[in-house]
Write a structure and sequence with these properties.
about 400 residues, about 60% helix, Mitochondrial carrier fold, 13 helices, two-stranded antiparallel ribbon
Length: about 400
């Protein structure tokens, strides 16, 4: 579907106007600074909400917590360990600051560049522009995100380290995570038993240790794998989301058209007699905060549906990559492992199932995270639209 062109500021001396929708809104319709500012704010909230799940997911994918241990139980036992003294807030703190920083910067780069490339790439087909733009923007964002996420991942994995490993590591003075785990690290029916105080693991200490042991390569551990697989995942997610959104909006317009409420069946054409699924009389009776749910131009329920379908599908497909990247990043210290070693170790310890460690939590987390990504993207575009 070709994007409609933006009218010139004046046409025969008469100011031109343009009504936009979620489907046809583009970069030239936005206030760029305001758009990035909203993305930054929403990303802070998203990072805080999802950090507990990412914390446990990291432990499960590295084998420090058994797959069968419920998320809340793992967090509860972590909080009761000696190093956190029963404080849930302290138990949730490892990697939080780094996660917030990494997510805010990477999402500003990702969504900002994505929106720009979707309009500016010299490609005739919209799907091709969206797919290539999504891959390029995702790859660029990870360049800034990976070093911060390496530190965050090490901090999160360290929080779940068994006391024996913690003592050995303290003697070595390193920050690397041991990858050959025994059954007591995460036995079925129970989380690992965490105990003794651990070495200082603040952001700068971990980052300095990684750089000292492996240099720049350590800080960008897993970046090559991310470019090959992770950015393909990101590109596929955005392409799937954008196309699914168009399909759902088209369906909503057909429903409205069948009741003779809308004259057009194109999801990008909003210059019709109504922009709602409801008549004006019925819409007036709906509380203001619920009215967007009946919109044919910017409907949060459509965005949720499109993101859920896309996230569930792509996360299940790419879970092996998630496991491998997490382990590569946890090995960013002196005992760093190669991609081949990580794959071999996972297969040796867990078989093929090892590449789907944490799948249930990963899918559940990414479905909800996908909803927040979609709402961040759509809300930032709407709130920064010159025509709104």
């Amino acid at each position: 579907m070709a994007r409609p062109t933006v009218s010139s500021p004046t046409e025969c001396g008469v100011p031109a106007t343009r009504t936009t929708s979620s489907v046809d809104r583009r970069f030239s319709d936005l206030d760029g600074i305001l758009y990035l500012s909203w993305i930054f704010v929403f990303s802070i909230l998203r990072a805080v909400v999802f950090h507990p799940f990412v914390l446990v997911l990291t432990a499960k994918q590295t084998g420090l917590v058994h797959e069968s241990v419920p998320t809340l139980r793992a967090l509860s036992e972590l909080a009761r360990s000696a190093q956190f003294g029963g404080s849930y807030l302290r138990a949730l703190s490892p990697g939080l600051a780094a996660s917030i920083l990494g997510l805010c910067v990477s999402e500003c780069v990702n969504m900002g560049l994505l929106e720009y490339l979707r309009q500016m790439l010299p490609m005739p087909q919209e799907s091709l522009r969206d797919g290539v733009g999504a891959y390029m923007s995702d790859a660029a964002s990870h360049f800034f995100d990976i070093p911060v996420q390496v530190v965050a991942t090490l901090q999160m994995a360290k929080a779940f380290r068994p006391p024996v490993d913690a003592a050995v590591e303290h003697q070595k003075g390193g920050v690397n995570v041991v990858h050959h785990h025994h059954h007591h690290h995460g036995e079925p029916g129970g989380a690992a038993k965490w105990a003794a105080p651990v070495p200082k693991m603040d952001f700068f200490t971990v980052g300095r240790s990684v750089f000292k042991e492996r240099g720049v390569r350590g800080l960008w551990a897993g970046y090559g794998t991310t470019l090959v697989m992770g950015s393909s995942w990101g590109g596929l997610w955005w392409l799937g989301y954008l196309r699914s959104k168009e399909v759902f909006y088209a369906g909503a317009l057909r429903v409205a058209s069948s009741s003779s409420r809308v004259s057009s069946s194109s999801p990008g054409d909003v210059n019709h007699s109504s922009t709602s699924l409801l008549s004006d009389v019925k819409l007036a009776a709906v509380p203001g905060f619920l009215r967007p749910c009946f919109s044919l131009t910017d409907n949060p329920l459509i965005h949720v549906a499109a993101s859920v379908v896309t996230s569930a599908t792509t996360t299940a497909m790419f879970n092996p990559f998630s496991v491998i990247r997490t382990r590569l990043q946890c090995a960013a210290g002196a005992s760093a492992l190669s991609l081949r070693q990580v794959v071999r170790d996972v297969y040796r310890d867990h078989g093929m199932w090892g590449f789907w460690l944490g799948t249930r939590l990963n899918v559940g987390t990414n479905v909800v995270d996908g909803i927040l990504i979609a709402q961040t993207y759509e809300s930032a575009r709407l709130l920064s639209d010159h025509h709104s």
